[in-house]
Amino acid sequence: MIKEIKLPEVSDNVDSGDVVKILVAVGDKIKIDQPIIELETDKAMFEVPSSEEGTVTEINVKEGESIKVGGVILKIESNGVDVKKDIKSEIKAEDKEEVKAEDKSEIKAEDKSEIKAEDKSEDKSEIKAEDKSEIKAEDKSEIKAEDKSEVKAEDKSEVKAEVKSENKPSEIIPVNSERANLLKQVSESVKTDSPPSQKTESFIKSEKKESAPASPSVRRLARELGIEVDDVTGSGQGGRIIEDDVKSFVKSIMSSSNVTGISVSNKSLPDFKKWGEVEIQTMSKVRAITAESMSYAWSTIPMVTQCDKADITNLEEFRKNYSKKVEAAGGHLTLTSILVKVCSEALNKFPQFNASIDLTKKEIVLKKYFNIGIAVDTDRGLLVPVIKNTDKKSITEISIELNELAEKARTKKISLDEMDGGNFTISNLGGIGGTNFNPIVYSPQVAILGVSRGSKEAVYVNNVFEPRLMLPLSLTYDHRIIDGADAARFLRWIAEALENPLLISL
Is position 154 within any domain? Predict the structure, then answer.
C-alpha cells in the first residue's frame, strides 16, 4: 500500500520552506520519526521527521526547491491496511452497481426514446430553419458592417495606447485636459517649427528635470541616508541644497504616519568584473531574513547604546570554583549562563526593558514572563535560541539548557519553538575578541546586551592601583520607551550584580 508523507505545519506564520538536503533515497527503509529532509524556513533550519514507516518508493522534492505546508515530500510502501482506501473502494463498488442496475435502465427506457422522438425532430429542424438563416442574414451583416469598423476605429487605437503604456517601464500618471492640451501644443510647435506660447514654455520648463544644485559632500550624505538628492527642496541661495535640507527631508519621511522607514533607493551595482575576478553567492534564507529584519529594525527603532564596565575578578574565581559541579550535572558554567540569570533579575526590577511597543494602538506591552535569547554563531549565520522562564531556573539549569540549545543550533537540529518568544537578547563576542560594539535591537524587543572580551586593567582601589579583570558591556535600547537615565541604571545594576554575585540572592 502506497502512502504519502507530507510537510506538516511546522510553526505559526510559516507556510513554506526550502529543501536543503534529502536524507533518504529510493529503496531505503525508514521508521517513524526518522529524519527525511533538512528544511530551512525564514526562522531556522531543522530536520523533518517521517510520520510513517515503510520503504521509500518515490521522492517528490529536490534540494534547493521550495515546498509548502501540506506538500508531498515522498511516497513509501507500507504493509499496513489503509482503512479509508478500503471504505472508498466499497462505496465506489456499491455506487457503480446501483448506477448500472437502476440509472442505466431508466436512461435506456425513457431518456433515449424522448431524445429520439422529440429532440432530434424539433431541435435539428429549428437549428436548420431558423438559427442558420438568422446567422447568415443578420449576424454576419452586423459583424461586417459594425463590429469591424469599431475594431478598426476604436479597438486598435486603444490597443496601441495600452500596449505602449504597458511596455514602458515607468509610472502611469493620469493626464488631465489642460495637461493634454499643453502636450498637444508642444508637439504641434515641434512639427511646425513655430515658437510655443508663453504657457507652453513654462510647461516645458516644468517637465524638464534638472539636477539639483548640491555640493559633493551633500550628495554623499544623501547616498549614505538612502535618498535621492533631487527629491530634496533646497533652502540655500538659488535653491541650493545644504546638509540641513537633507536631514530635514529624512526626518519628515521617518515621522510620516504612512511610512515605516526610510525609502532606500535600489540603485544597480556597478560591474565589479571590470576591476577583477568576483564570486557571486546566493543568500541563504537565514541570511536574507536577518538582513531584512536588521534593516527594518535600523530604520524604525531610534537606538541608543549605553556602555559600562564590570569588575568580574571575584566572579571569575567563583566560576572556576563551581565549574566542575555544573559539568557533573551536564552543563558548562560560563559567563553567558551567569549573565542570563543576572539579566533575568534585572528585567524583573526594570519592567520597561521586558516590554514591547505598539505605536498603532499607542500601547506598551509589559510582559510578566522572562525569556532570554542567546545569539549563537553558526556556519549558516546568526541564530538566537531562547531560554524560557529564566526567573524560575537556577544557574546550573540555565547552563545545561544553554549548552543543549547551542549544540542544536550548530548541528541544525534546533526547532522553531526553541527560537521563538524572546523578550531580551544577549550577544557575547568575548570569546572572539573586541573592546566594545553596538548591537542592534531585535524587534519587537526593546533592548539587547552586548558583551566584549574582559581584560586586566589597573583600577584605583583604596588609594592603590590594583590589577582587576574588567568586562566591557554595551546596552542598546529603544529610546521611544526607555530613557537614558533608566538605561544607565539598568546597566549599572547588571555590572554591580556581576561584581557581587550575592546581590542576586539578596
Answer: no
Is residue 421 assigned to a domain?
yes
CA-to-CA dists, residue 270 to 220, 267, 275, 278, angstroms: 17, 9, 10, 12
Within 13 A of 217's CA, how many CA atoms are on the CB side? 3
As a whole number of Å, the end-to-end CA separation of the chain is 65
Domain count, the chain: 3
Is the domain of 340 the same as that of 484? Answer: yes
pLDDT in tens, 477-500: 999 999 999 999 999 999 999 998
Does 456 share its domain with 323?
Answer: yes
Nearest to 447 by CA among 493, 399, 504, 395: 493
Q: Which string of b and e fits 470-485 if b means at least 16 CB within 10 Å?
A: bbbbbbbbbeebbeee
Identify the CA nearest to 295 among candidates 317, 253, 264, 319: 264
- The amino acid sitting at 228 is E
Is 479 annotated as catalytic?
yes
Mean pLDDT of 139-164: 42
Catalytic residue among 479, 493, 501, 504: 479
Nearest to 472 by CA among 302, 306, 303: 306
Which residue range is the domain that position 225 belongs to?
200-253
| CA nearest neighbour of 265 among 213, 208, 224 | 224
CA pair distance 269, 395, nearest whole angstrom = 50
Spatial distance between the Cα atoms of 451 and 36, rounded to a whole number of angstroms: 39
- What gap in Å lies between CA 26 and CA 54, rounded to an integer? 11
Side chain identity, residue 288: A
Q: Is the peptide bond before 472 cis (omega within 30 degrees of 0)?
A: no
**Continuous segment of H or E residues that includes residue 428:** strand 424-428
Q: How confident is the model at residue 57 (pLDDT cuts 50, 70, 90)?
A: very high
Q: Three-state DSSP class for 489?
A: helix
* Total-model pTM: 0.56
Same domain, 350 and 492: yes
Which residue from 419, 138, 423 is spatially nearest to 286, judged by alpha carbons? Answer: 419
What pLDDT sits at residue 477?
A: 97
Cα R_g (the chain), whole angstroms: 36
Instruction: Give the strands of the sheet with 35-40, arranged side by side.
Output: 45-49, 35-40, 16-22, 66-68
Summarize the confidence of residues 385-407 as an average pLDDT: 95
Rounded mean pLDDT of the chain? Answer: 76
Same domain? For 338 and 421 the reply is yes
Would you state the cell numbers that stand for residue 426, as one nine-digit string? 544577549
What CATH number is attached to the domain comprising 223? Answer: 4.10.320.10
* Phi, psi (rounded to 5 degrees) for 279: -130, 130
Rounded CA-CA distance 430/427 in Å is: 9
pLDDT band at residue 324, thresholds of 50, 70 and 90?
A: very high
